[in-house]
Amino acid sequence: MAVETHAWRKPVRRIAFLVFPNFQALDLAGPLDVFAEANGLVPADDRYEIVVIGPTPDILQASNGMQLVPDICVGAAGDQYETILVVGGPDVPTSQPDKRLVSYLCEQALHVRRYGSICTGAFYLGAAGLLNGKKATTHWQAAPLLAKKFPSVSIDPDPLFIYDEPLITSAGVTAGIDLALALVQQDFGSGISLAVARKLIVVAHRLGGQLQYSPSLVVSKSGNEKIERFKTHVERNIRDELSNAALARALGISFRHLSRLVQDEMGITPIEYIRRARLDTAREVLANTKLPLKVVAHESGFGTVEKLSRAFKTRFGVTPIQYRSSFGS
Amino acid sequence: MAVETHAWRKPVRRIAFLVFPNFQALDLAGPLDVFAEANGLVPADDRYEIVVIGPTPDILQASNGMQLVPDICVGAAGDQYETILVVGGPDVPTSQPDKRLVSYLCEQALHVRRYGSICTGAFYLGAAGLLNGKKATTHWQAAPLLAKKFPSVSIDPDPLFIYDEPLITSAGVTAGIDLALALVQQDFGSGISLAVARKLIVVAHRLGGQLQYSPSLVVSKSGNEKIERFKTHVERNIRDELSNAALARALGISFRHLSRLVQDEMGITPIEYIRRARLDTAREVLANTKLPLKVVAHESGFGTVEKLSRAFKTRFGVTPIQYRSSFGS
């Protein structure tokens, strides 16, 4: 009889969030508040129903200490959801994911309309095989490890979220709010998602991607002595031209040899490494001083404001001036 | 003996959050994550210790449905905190605040280094008398009611937070993250707060204040027929000049009479009302179309791009182009 009654109702928008011990509270609370605010603006029979699913019914402690009671445990969660999202947590990239949640994800991915992750939740999707052959993103800090663990995934560490339907993955922490706003926009249009953004005091579309938040430099695999000398030399001479010939001379090895070494150890060319070191220097100077752009360009070795601005915009999606107004003190 | 052991320890940074049924989860989770991330970057003996205090030890449901277990109930919370912050919730402005939390705030304000609120948590501070004679802010939607309930407070609805020491109040919801970053900056400097912002994928300093998120128009107290005709006339003729004489002619009353009426009912002059109506029109056109600024200026009755830009920047702290990139679709 219950089934017949349900048949008269419009299909509801049920969203499940998967959580686990030491999850990042903001990964959950941000998107939850987006969906809850949308509920205040849409017809009553078209509202989201949200369920927070834990590995067990026990209280979970978030990484910030907050204590959460899951609405239901995964064994009793059933398969009535339209959307499933996994949150992240600081130890997710380097620890074993909860097997109950992974197998639930595997099963449910066949039934749901869309599934996704916030922040390092992407490692759960990877473990469930749901990233294979897809485009995805995650927290900038975890992107290299995600790429290493799941080599068949095409990972872009820059966008705030990537919607490669039915998969949606977001960048770090608060990018989960951007992801949830995109789902609200898909479901109810941009008018509703804009109203939700205004209510929560977030912008509907952020300027630039995730890369503006992360350090540009890559770490080398080993502590190779020549690589360390190369890095130190770049750091100490960042204002100078740093030509191939000058580098080879200063380090006492051929540029060809250096180039092979840097590529093997860091996965990028020496020129790209120098460009990123210059960008990081420029960002430090922009954030911590009020020096004019001309001086910033000189201090970081770009030489001209034009070269600095072009490289900056290409990598971070914002201009040096926009960056300074967001991160300067 | 316990006391003596404690005497050897550096004084810890204890922060208490006050929560209650139907609180806004993001008001709590955002700042909590800021302090927790800062803990990963500072010396172990200088870390924040955070306690979430509820009216009772019972599970609390947030407005988004999330179920939280407070760390302690207010009766057992003691007076060992350096900072006390109250979160907001959707029904706080129009309901009776929890008396146990209000009297705890009253007592503790005498001992703590600083106290404050996130979003509509300001109503709790008001009820405890802690806003009297101070400058404060709250969610844009609740600002008029806060001003009415606590007339001795100087309320500015624009800033993302106001630090009138020892009182710190923040604008709506995610502005709690901005508030927490400001406290981390005060405690540990801008290097640490910048690193926390980058980890959570938020900017350290947002462009513009809260007003860019709120509708500009004020509601009239009563449904006065002349006021309604004035509003409709402005809405229908927003592209035109709307001079005092033309308005008086169109509405069939003297401008002096109209002016008194509008001021009594809405607390602003007719000219200010028209300016805000133009700004709201400009924002709608900016967000929903790709029309050039010249056309936006015409459609909203500002006439020239220069006049539009000046009025826009003055009220919202951002240019029309910056607004479009944040809120346009």
UniProtKB/TrEMBL annotation, chains A, B:
It comes from Nitratireductor indicus C115. This is AraC family transcriptional regulator. Residues 228-326 form the HTH araC/xylS-type domain. Keywords: DNA-binding, Transcription, Transcription regulation. GO terms for molecular function: DNA-binding transcription factor activity; sequence-specific DNA binding. The keyword Transcription regulation applies. The keyword Transcription regulation applies. Transmembrane segments: none annotated. SMART domains: HTH_ARAC (SM00342). Coiled coil: none annotated.
